[in-house]
Every structure is written in structure tokens, then in C-alpha cells.
Amino acid sequence: MYIKKIAEILKGRLMDAVGQENSIINDFETIYSFVKSKNTAYFSPNKVTWAKNLGRSKNAPEGNDLIDKSNEEIGLIITENYVENMEHKIPQLIVDDSVKALKTLAIHIRNQFHNPVIAITGSMGKSSTRMLISSLLQDYQVLENRGNNNIRASIYANMLKLIKNPDYAVIETSLNAINNKENTAVYLRPDIAIVTGIGAAHFSTFQSLEQIAEIKSRIFKGLNHNGVAIINGETMFADYLKDKALEYTQNILTYHKDNTVDSDFSPKFIQYHKGYIELGLDEIQGIEKYKLNTISEGMVSNALAAFLTLKELH
After folding, report:
1. Do the Cβ atoms of 198 and 216 come closer than 8 Å?
2. pTM of the model
3. How confident is the model at residue 205 (pLDDT cuts 50, 70, 90)?
4. In this structure, are residues 305 and 255 in contact, taking their beta carbons and an 8 Å threshold?
5. What helix, strand, coil percent values describe the chain, rounded to 5?
6. I need a surface site. Which of 20, 70, 210, 302 has the fewest CB within 10 A?
7. In this structure, how many other beta carbons lie within 10 angstroms of the beta carbon of residue 228?
């Protein structure tokens, strides 16, 4: 994307960009330490704006203060306040509201992206499920969360990174990203939305498990009518989650560890060994048996969610 196109989308004031308006930006960062290229734009977090609108810690540093003014390897700085005394002419795009600009550009880039987006939420297992899916898709280019950063700002930051046009995006989403303040799922628009389970992990913030289930179900709001909802059939409120998913799609699939229970996906067998578990699968891309290097029951469920996702992706 050309720098001048970004300026046009954000309606910002472009400075120090003479002769560089047609330079290409193919990556974005909201964390300065990851800016390593003239093709990367740095979205500089304004301390007040980001704390107010994205819940960023009020003690977090000003984004502009983190910039090494001798660094030439920055493609563009998007900021509310012009950065003085840069040693090199780095283009700067001055915007009125950096959070609004972040969202506007993230939504624009998401709307241009046409490969599958998988979103995962749950009181437990979302990071493990995300990592399993990404590992099973290792032959492809996969965009996923950096670490387990899954709050609202991270969702928008990952939407920006769709500019790289990965084969798949696998994004875990916390309650922070789909709560009463804002449901980022409606902008992320996943093709597949997974709920790994409902539990008491958030009791310090919410009053009941029912409330947690209601908020987790909001991930389905981003699905279109062709989208797929994947639900852990063993979790509390599984029927409620299915009913909520039905408001947005008819394509609802469940998984269950017990193959005698009615579900869309379950293992042929589960064999427990010293230090690992083997799962028997209906053949998926030539895989009939899968080894988990753990004895965790939860990881069995996460693996089933991952394989059901692969099956749905063909």
C-alpha cells in the first residue's frame, strides 16, 4: 500500500514525505521495537487516547518517546503529534485520533482480505487451540497472535497485518475484545469462530457463568451466513452457544471426546501412555493417528477443535 493511499484513507496530514509518497508499506507495528524495515509503518500509541479507548495502561510510555530518532529503518510514523528532531526524513502522517485511525485502517485492510480468518475464544484452551491450528497449517503462511496478546488493540493490530496476505489468519480473542465496550468480532469477520469452553476464569470481572457465556457468544456476531461456528460440545452452556450461533449462521459444528455422544467430530479412540496421548482420527489429509506430547485432557479437546477446523478448511 502506498504511503499516499494510507494518508488518503486516514485523512491525515502527510509531512516529510516529499519524494516518498509512492513508497510501499507492507507491514504495521504498534510496538516500536518490532519496526525493522522501511516497508513498516509504526502506529505510535498516544498515551491518553489509547488509555481512554483501548484500555492501555495509563503508565505505559508515550509511543513517540520510544522512537530512536537516529533510526532510518522506519517506513512511516502514524502519530497524533509530530516527532521533532528526527535525524532522517521519515514520512510522518499526523492524525487527530490515533485509535480511530488504527481502527479505520484495520477495517479497510480486513475488507480487502479474502483468505480464511479463524477466530478463537473461550475461558480455557484458546491459546493452545490457536497454536495447534497454526502448527497443523505449518505448510502455509499463517498470521497469528504474537504471544498470547489477544485484547482489542491486538485484534486491530493483527487486522493491519492482513496486508501481508497470509494464507490463513488464526486469531485468539479475549473477553476484552468482545465485551460490552466493543465487539471487535464484527470487524474481524471470522469465517470460522470457535468457542473452546465456558468456565470460571473471569469471575473476578463478571457476576456469573451465564454472563461469561453470553459475552463469549458474541464472537458469532462477526460471522456471515456462510460462516462456521465450532463449539465444544462438552462445555457448560453448549446448547446456549448453539442457539446464539444460530442467530448468525446455520453452519454449526460440535466436537466431543466421547464418540458415543452425538457430535460432528470425535476421536475413534483415545489411548493414554506415559507422557503422551494418541488420538485415532477419521483420516484428515492422510492423518489417522495423532500424538499429543501431554497427558492433559484439555489438550485432547483443543486438538479436536483444531482438527475439526482443518476438516472444515478442506
Report:
1. yes
2. 0.93
3. low
4. yes
5. 35, 20, 45
6. 70
7. 22
